[in-house]
Amino acid sequence: LGANAESVIVLNADGNLVSAHTTEGLDAEQDTLIELGRLALAGASAVTEQKNRLRAAPVMAGPEGPVIGALALASSYEAQRVLVWQDARWIFVLAGVSFVVMMGLTLWLLNRTLGAPLRRLTRAVKRIIDGDYDTESKMVGRKDEIGDIARNTLALLKVLREGRTAEQARAERLEQQLKVVGELGQALDNLANGILHMRIAG
Question: What is the pTM of this model?
Answer without folding.
Answer: 0.37
